[in-house]
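Entry type: protein chain
Record version: 2
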Amino acid sequence: MAPSTSISQTVKFGRYEVDLRSGELRKFGVRIKLGEQPLQILLLLLERPGSLVTRGELRSRLWPDDVFVDFEHGLNSAIQRLRDVLCDKAQKAIWIETVPRRGYRFVGVIEQNAEMAGQPDGRARAFPAEVLQPSLPQISDATSSAPLSVAFGVRLHRRRIVWATLAVLTIATGIVVIRKLIDRSDSTVHSLAVLPLQNLSTDPSGELFADEMTDELITALAKNPELRVVSRTSAMQFRAARLSLPEIAQRLGVDGIVEGSASGSHGQVHINVQLIRAATDGHLWAESYDLGPGEHSSDLALTIARQVGAATSARTQTRRVDPAAQDAYLMGRYYWFAMQNEKSREYFQKAIALDPSYAPAWSGLCDYFMMRALEGGLDTRDSVQQAAAAAAKAVALDDSSVEAHNSMAAVDYFARWDWAGADRESARAVHLNPHWAEAHHLRSYILRTLHRSDEALQEQKTATEIDPFYKPWAYGAALEQARQYDSAIAELLQRIQGQPGDPVSRIFLSEAYALSGRHREAATELEQAYLLMHLPEHAEGVRAAYRQGAWKAVLEWQLKELKIESATRYVAQTEYAEVYAQLNRREDTLRALELGYAEHAKEMVHMDENPMYDLVRSEPRFQAIRKKMALPAAP
């Protein structure tokens, strides 16, 4: 006779728990609505973790032979509803793996507890019959997988409103709770990461809007001076990461995590939002919502501003933002981050046309023009003028907007070479939001140009501490510019260990090695950078050149490639100047810098502190360029 086993009354996996007595699914102790058919599927999968449960077995469990039903549609709908609730995806399964044409398998880890001690592997198996066939009312899930395009109508704008409502409500409810927690000495949260909202709908546009709304959530929370909120770039590193929340929080250096998910069907959006305390992986707050397609975000945005005490002007706090303008702005930001600059302009201008007094749209338009100017081209001067006008408009509409002042600082610094103006505007941006890494990063550049080297290093160090995954190469690059090569190498190696897939860190590491005379390591890192950028032919070019003539041959190969690339893309003269300088070609270096000044190349702002130009620093022609740019005198 087989030994008797003690049957657990609860089955736990990750943040979820199934109560076998009541047939309820909970997340962090909060009950989650789940239909009867998805529940039965989950129970059967948990009964046999790691093993295949065939579609035939699921049909037998859910639909008796004498019941006529569209089995394929019903099963697919029930599986999708279960995945929605568990924040799972078929393509990147965390809990439920699809075995094509055969069935499904539970692939998560079930926690062992005292009640399951009789099970040799700690896995739940023979659930009581009354749990597997409960006398609960039947809940239809036949429509749960309907796409958002059906649910919200054929017009894209309607879907944008719903997704905007979803995210802004997430922001509002999260901030209300977060503000309360800040004042509790036993649960203080000083820093947060907002993980990318998970799109669990079948609408292809859902992923795009989920990303946009994550940006909106991060921006709104970052306005709270009592909170440090890491950037979108850092948060996106952990999309679908198979790490525990405490591990993610530790890597980001935060106290709390905000996460959420959304799914839609037949005119409704269902969302789950929670705030997690990182140290304990325990939930501080969780809630579920069902929203209709007609709800707008503007009223909720006002609630957000009141709750976080955001540093916005009275006009911003009391005026109503046109939801369509906000939608257009978010679309613009999405395309701007995606490096589709021309596409971003279309939406920023649409937002302005809908609401000319909407300051974020003007800031976005400024960033568009600045990107176009920095990319080079015949219209650079015109782009700079339009960027400056847009930044001035944003500041005039909302003088307490950190984004507006940071945009103005970028215009003054990169475009106007107005060092005093850049210093003033960047200082204002840092003051408005001392927890925004980008403001500290730009201020570091400006202080470096002003020869305030110690302050510049501290600003970049602060930016990296605030957000270690945002521009992970930046502090190492700052140390390199300060000629602290050993420290730069150590810093960059540490960042590469944490983010081995970042090619930019390897490019700066290659530079630091080259400047310190370690040419073999410089060539190796440059080769690795090209491989990470999916340019194997360039990697082979570096490898072959070094074999043929060491580092000098690599530099000559780079110069040849720049000339080839200049036929199809804008190549700044400063790119040539740096290679010429490393080849000790003094005349060519000076000529390239003079041309760089004439074309207003963006890297000219770093001319004074760039160690590669030590070769020509004392030359009268170099000093003449400095004078034309009105660069501050070195101490």
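Comment: The chain is about 55% helix and 10% strand.
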